[in-house]
Design brief:
Elements (H helix, E strand, L loop, with lengths): L1 H14 L14 E2 L10 H8 L4 E2 L6 E2 L10 E4 H7 L19 E4 L2 H34 L4 E6 L7 H7 L4 E6 L3 H4 L10 E6 L4 H9 L9 E6 L2 H8 L2 H4 L3 E7 L6 E6 L7 E8 L2 E2 L16 E6 L8 E4 L5 E5 L1 H13 L1 E6 L18 H7 L5 E2 L13 E3 L4 E10 L16 H27 L11 H12 L11 H30 L10 H7 L2 E5 L4 H5 L4 H4 L5 E4 L6 H5 L3 E6 H10 L2 E2 L2 E2 L1 E13 L2 E3 L5 H14 L1 H14 L12 H4 L13 H24 L8
C-alpha cells in the first residue's frame, strides 16, 4: 500500500507540473510551526528540506530532528495532502491554534509521519531532476543545436529522468555508462564538427584519472557540461593537463534551493579554476551570460612564457657597454609581440634552463632545450628560427608557417690566386693554345706565300722571303706593333689584311678583360656541388641533429653519403672556427649564413666565408605551441594577417637595420678597401700589375739565355735583318 501511494505521489507531482516548486519560503512542503512564526534563515530552510521525519518521544508527537516545536506536531499544507491523496485512510487531526480555513493541517500518527517523509523524499528528487533536466535541455537547445552529443553518466543516473529527457533530443550520438576509468575509454572523443559532452556523475574520479593519463584521447575542442556534486571536483578537472587545454568546460553544482543550480565556467590563462557565471532558478538563468564565449580573442593580459635563445637574425640581443642584455629584437621577437598586441597577452621571454638551444631527444623519450620546455608544458610558445620537422610533431603543435628558407652549405672562402697570374686570366687555356698555334703558323705561311710569288716572277719584298723576318712580322702584328714594310703582291696583302683584323680583335678583347682581372682577384676552383663535397671528404657540421634524418632519407646518393661525415655541435661557436680552417662546411639556413658572413666574418670588406651553389632542402619556419594547445587556431589566424599585410618582411628588414647600428653586428670601418671604394677612379697598384713586371724580368732572362745559346752554337752573332 505504501509503495502504491509513493507512486501516486510522484505521478501526482508530475501531473500537476510541480506547481508548488519554486514558490516563496512559506510554501515549503514540511515546516516546523513556531510560537511567533519566526522567519528561518536560508541554511535552516535547506536543512529542513533535506531531513527525514523521525519520532521524537513516546507520546506519538513528532517533529523534525533538532528542530523543537511548541505543539509537538508536524504541519503539512492541505494542497500537498490533496495532491498526493494522503487523506485516504489517514486520521488528520484538526489544526491547533490555526483557523479552520487555514491551508495548514497537522498529523500525529507515526504511520502518517513515515508515509509523509517517504513521499517528500521522492518528491524532492523529482523536483531536483526536473530542474536539472530543464537546465541541460536549455543549454543544448541554445548552444549545442548543431553539435553531436555524448552523454556520460554513472550507475546512479542509469534510469534517471535527466538521461531519459536528454535522449529525446535529436542530436545525441552516444550514451556511455561509466563504472570505472576503463569505461571512459569507450567514449567517442573525436566527432566531426561541433561536439558536446554532457557528464552526469556523482563522483568525477574516473574522468579525472582518465584526463590525467590519456592526453591524446580527449576532445580539446569539445564543449563540456559537467554536473558535479561539488565545486572542488570541477576545480580538480580543470586543473588536469587536459582540462587546462580545453577551452569550454561548464560546471553545474546544486544550489541551496530545491530548483537552484549554480553554473560555473573555466578560465584560460588569465586565471585558473572555475568562476561562477550565472544561476539556474525557476527554469531560467538569472543572468544572460554566454556559456561558450570566445575566450582566446582577449586573454586579458595573461602572461605567456616564450622559450627562446639568441639566434641572429631571428632573435638578437641589444646589449649595453657592459654586455648586459637590454632587450630582444629581430623577426621572431616582432612576430610574438604582434600576436601579444592582437590577442592581449603579456610576453615573458626565457632561455632554456639547461643551456641547450633547440635540444634533442634523449633515450627515455624526453627532450632537452626549448623542445624540452614545450614538451613538459613549461613554456607556452617556442621560437628561434624553428623548422617544421616530423621528428618533433609528437611533442608539440606547430603554428601556420610564417616563412620558408633554403638550407645551404657554407664553406671557407679559398684564398684568391696571385695577381701576377692575372695576365693569363682573360683567356681560357684552350684559347691561349689556339692563339699560340696561330702565332706559330702565321709566320711560316707568310714566308711560303711570299717565296712562291717571287719564284713565279712576282715582285715581292725580299725581306718577306726570309723565314725569320716573316715570323717577326707576324709577331709584331699580334702585339699591335706598326710595320713599315708593306707587301706588294695581292696575295700577301690579302693575307696580311686578315691577319691585322684577327690580331686587332684578339688584342682588344684581351686588354679589356685584363683590366677586370687586374682589379678583381680571381678565386681558385672550389667546391660548389654536392658531388664535389662528397668527394672532398670534408666534415658536414650542423647545430644539433635536425638535418641528420633528412640527409639519411635523401634520394641523391651523394647527399646520402654525407651522413658518414655529418656531425652535430651545440652551437655555431664550435663550427665557424672549423670552417675557417678548411676542415668542415656549415649546414644551416641561408639567411643565417648570409647575416653572419656579412657581419662577423669579413676582413677589410672581403668575405671570409661563402655559400655553395648547391643547397640541401627548403624548410618551413613556424612557432611551436604545447601539444593540443587551444592557442593554435587564433595564432594561425593572426599569422595569416601578418603575412598578407607584408609585415613579416618588414620585421626582418627592421631587425637588420637595428643590428647594423650595434657594435656586435655593425659593419667595421677600415683604411683598406673600404676607403678605396669611395673614390671615383681606382688607381692600379703594384699588386695589380705585378704580372707585367714579372713578364719584364722573365724577358730579360730569356734574352740572356738566347745570347748564351747563340754564342755557344754559332760562335758569331746572327746576321742583322
Amino acid at each position: 500500500m505504501v509503495r502504491l501511494q509513493c507512486v501516486m505521489v510522484v505521478a501526482a507531482v508530475a501531473a500537476t507540473g510541480l506547481s508548488w516548486c519554486g514558490q516563496a519560503r512559506s510554501s515549503h512542503t514540511v515546516r516546523t510551526t513556531h510560537h511567533h512564526h519566526a522567519r528561518r534563515s536560508e541554511g535552516e530552510a535547506a536543512h529542513a528540506d533535506t531531513t527525514h521525519l523521525a519520532p521524537h518521544d513516546s507520546n506519538a508527537s513528532y517533529t523534525l530532528p533538532n528542530m523543537k516545536n511548541q505543539h509537538g506536531v508536524v504541519q503539512v499544507k492541505r494542497s500537498f495532502v490533496k495532491a498526493t491523496s494522503l487523506s485516504d485512510g489517514l486520521q488528520v487531526t484538526p489544526a491547533v491554534q490555526v483557523a479552520p480555513q487555514s491551508d495548514r493541517i497537522y498529523i500525529t500518527s507515526a504511520a502518517e509521519v513515515a508515509f509523509v517523509s517517504n513521499a517528500l523524499q521522492i518528491t524532492r528528487a523529482a523536483v531536483k531532476e526536473g530542474s536539472l533536466s530543464s537546465l541541460l535541455v536549455a543549454v543544448v537547445r541554445q548552444y549545442l543545436t548543431e553539435c553531436g552529443l555524448v552523454i556520460i553518466h554513472d550507475s546512479g543516473h542509469l534510469y534517471s529522468a535527466v538521461v531519459q529527457q536528454l535522449l529525446l533530443l535529436p542530436n545525441f550520438r552516444q550514451v556511455v555508462e561509466v563504472r570505472g576509468v576503463s569505461d571512459v575509454g569507450g567514449v567517442v572523443w573525436w566527432l566531426a564538427g561541433c561536439s558536446g559532452y554532457l557528464v552526469l556523475m556523482d563522483s568525477l574520479t574516473p574522468l579525472l584519472d582518465w584526463a590525467a593519463t590519456h592526453h591524446n584521447a580527449w576532445n580539446y575542442a569539445g564543449r563540456y557540461v559537467v554536473v558535479s556534486e561539488s565545486l572542488a571536483q570541477l576545480e580538480a578537472l580543470v586543473a588536469t593537463r587536459n582540462g587546462k587545454k580545453t577551452e569550454h568546460i561548464i560546471g553545474v553544482v546544486k544550489g541551496v534551493r530545491r530548483d537552484e543550480w549554480r553554473v560555473y565556467m573555466n578560465a584560460l590563462y588569465w586565471r585558473w579554476g572555475m568562476q561562477e557565471v550565472t544561476t539556474w532558478r525557476h527554469n531560467t538563468f538569472t543572468s544572460p551570460t554566454p556559456l561558450f564565449p570566445d575566450k582566446l580573442a582577449d586573454l586579458r593580459g595573461a602572461v605567456l612564457k616564450v622559450s627562446a635563445f639568441e639566434f641572429a637574425p631571428s632573435i638578437m640581443y641589444y646589449r649595453d657597454a657592459a654586455g648586459k642584455m637590454l632587450y630582444r629584437y629581430g623577426e621572431d621577437v616582432a612576430l610574438v609581440e604582434s600576436l601579444a598586441d592582437a590577442l592581449n597577452f603579456t610576453v615573458h621571454f626565457a632561455e632554456p634552463a639547461d643551456g641547450e638551444t633547440w635540444g634533442y631527444e634523449l633515450a627515455n623519450g624526453s627532450w632537452v632545450g626549448i623542445m624540452g620546455d614545450i614538451q613538459r608544458d613549461e613554456a607556452n610558445i617556442v621560437v628561434s628560427n624553428l623548422y617544421v620537422s616530423l621528428a618533433r610533431i609528437g611533442i608539440l603543435d606547430y603554428t601556420a608557417p610564417y616563412s620558408s628558407e633554403n638550407t645551404c652549405f657554407m664553406a671557407r672562402m679559398e684564398p684568391p690566386l696571385p695577381r701576377w697570374q692575372a695576365l693569363a686570366f682573360p683567356f681560357h687555356p684552350w684559347t691561349w693554345l689556339a692563339i699560340v698555334v696561330g702565332l706559330v703558323v702565321s709566320g711560316p705561311l707568310l714566308y711560303l706565300l711570299a717565296s712562291a710569288g717571287a719564284t713565279c716572277g712576282g715582285d715581292e719584298a725580299s725581306n718577306l722571303g726570309q723565314l725569320s723576318f716573316s715570323w717577326y712580322y707576324t709577331f709584331g702584328l699580334h702585339f699591335c706593333e706598326p710595320q713599315m714594310l708593306v707587301p706588294r703582291m695581292s696575295s700577301t696583302r690579302t693575307f696580311v689584311l686578315f691577319l691585322w683584323l684577327y690580331t686587332m680583335i684578339i688584342t682588344i678583347v684581351y686588354s679589356t678583360n685584363l683590366t677586370a682581372f687586374l682589379l678583381v682577384r680571381k678565386p681558385p676552383a672550389s667546391i660548389e656541388t654536392i658531388k664535389d663535397l662528397h668527394d672532398s671528404g670534408l666534415e658536414v657540421a650542423a647545430i644539433g641533429d635536425i638535418y641528420k634524418a633528412g640527409i639519411a632519407s635523401a634520394s641523391d646518393p651523394y647527399l646520402r653519403g654525407l651522413l658518414r661525415v655529418f656531425k652535430g655541435y651545440p652551437s655555431e661557436n664550435h663550427i665557424f672556427p672549423r670552417v675557417l680552417e678548411g676542415k668542415a662546411v656549415f649546414l644551416q639556413s641561408r639567411s643565417f649564413q648570409e647575416f653572419h658572413g656579412a657581419t662577423k666574418y669579413t676582413h677589410r670588406g672581403v668575405p671570409m666565408l661563402r655559400i655553395m651553389k648547391a643547397c640541401f632542402a627548403p624548410y618551413s619556419i613556424a612557432m611551436a605551441l604545447q601539444k593540443h594547445s587551444p592557442l593554435k587556431n587564433k595564432f594561425d589566424e593572426v599569422i595569416g594577417w601578418l603575412q598578407q599585410s607584408g609585415l613579416r618582411r618588414h620585421f626582418f628588414l627592421e631587425g637588420l637595420r637595428l643590428a647594423a647600428t650595434t657594435k656586435e653586428y655593425g659593419s667595421e670601418s677600415g683604411d683598406g678597401d673600404v676607403g678605396v671604394k669611395e673614390r671615383a677612379v681606382i688607381p692600379l697598384s703594384l699588386d695589380h700589375l705585378q704580372g707585367i713586371f714579372f713578364l719584364l724580368v722573365g724577358g730579360w732572362h730569356v734574352s740572356l739565355l738566347a745570347f748564351i745559346l747563340e754564342k755557344t752554337f754559332s760562335g758569331q752573332p746572327s746576321d742583322r735583318i
